TrEMBL record:
Gene3D superfamilies: Immunoglobulins. It comes from Conger conger. Residues 1-20 form the signal peptide. The keyword Signal applies. InterPro entries: Ig-like_fold. This is Uncharacterized protein. It comes from the Eukaryota. Keywords: Signal.
Amino acid sequence: MAWTQATAMILFWVWRLPFAEPTGTSVTCTFSEDCVLPCTFKASSDEVIHWNRNNFIVHSYYHDADHLEKQDQAF
């Protein structure tokens, strides 16, 4: 039964992909300058957000708080 449900979900997402509309916002930034990136989502209590640049942690947010202890010093 679980395999059937998993297969149905995969087929649903594969069918949905070609019809999905991008909802992003265009952002224009200057090379090597600070840039603010928009991030919107429906709020709930279990959001986990990790922003990385290559292997560096830029920002982490989870358990309703910023977590800066592992953030790279450059950010």
